[in-house]
Amino acid sequence: MARLVRRCCGLCLDQLAGELVAAQCGHLFHQRCCEHRSQALQCPSCGAEFHGRDTLRIFCSDVVPQEIPSAVKQQMRDLRSELSGILREKRTLQDNVNSAETKVQELERQRVSKEHEIKSWELKVAAQKRKCEQVKKHLMLARQKADEQRENAAWSSYMAKLETDANGALEDLRSWFQAGDDRRRKLGRAKLDRLIEQVQSKTTTVIQQAAAYQKDLEALQDGSCKVQKRGAPAAQSRCKLRRID
């Protein structure tokens, strides 16, 4: 049986007949099986590599082919069938590999796209944070300006009240002087001195408080300190001039 197997072409497994060639290793093949192969071939019998152009043509016109036994033919059919199954399985596996590679490439494209999208959103978030910080600064400045305006309004109202009280006290003093000698004699010199001293003291207090309040406002505008809010009623309770009857 071994002798019969050796008389088969190792590339197509058909019986050696017709135009034959011998490889450098000495094994025989069909010429048609070698001449259309551009790449190097490997001998199935010994594993030696050879090229179709390096083969030696063999003339075997006097060789009479022998009938291959049915058992060998069945074995050859089984081998061909097994080889076909292996090739089909190889193609299936190759298709699976190609499909997996395609999915991997698609996932890689999605990953890159998501990374770009994340970076874009990070830039947008950073820009929004900067805008929020700017808005906070503007709000803080607006609050400070509003506080200053309220302080200025309270100060103006307070000064107007002090001016009214001072004018009232001076008007009372002027009325007293215009009342005549009889009232001055009734009131007495000591009462007059106390009245004048009281008016001078209240005037000095108003001037001192106005200077201190103005200094606090200037410090607040310069940002060097933060003055607590002073309400006009509280200031008036400390500096309100009593009207003189």
In short:
By secondary structure, this protein is mainly α.
Main beta sheet = 3 strands, antiparallel
What's the pLDDT, averaged over the residues?
75
Note the run of SSEs as H and E: HEEHEEEHHHH
**Based on the structure, what is the oligomeric state of the protein chains?**
single chain
Query: What percentage of the residues does DSSP assign to strands (E)?
Result: 5-15%
- Quote the distance from N terminus to C terminus: 151 Å
- The rough form would be described as rod-shaped
- Uncertain residue segments: 1-6, 224-245
Number of helices: 6
Spatial ordering of strands, largest sheet: 2-1-5
Q: What does this molecule look like?
A:
69% of the residues lie in helices and 5% in strands. Strands 2-1-5 form a three-stranded antiparallel sheet. A two-stranded antiparallel sheet has the order 3-4. By secondary structure, it is mainly alpha-helical. It has helices spanning 2-6, 31-35, 70-178, 181-187, 189-222, 232-239, and strands at 20-22, 28-30, 41-42, 49-50, 56-58. The chain contains six helices and five strands. Among the domains are: 2-68, Herpes Virus-1 (2-Layer Sandwich); 148-239.
Write the layout of secondary structure elements.
Elements lengths: L1 H5 L13 E3 L5 E3 H5 L5 E2 L6 E2 L5 E3 L11 H109 L2 H7 L1 H34 L9 H8 L6
Antiparallel strand pairs: 1-2, 1-5, 3-4
Helix pairs in contact: 3-5, 3-6
What distinguishing features does this structure have?
245 residues; mainly alpha; Herpes Virus-1; 6 helices; disordered C terminus
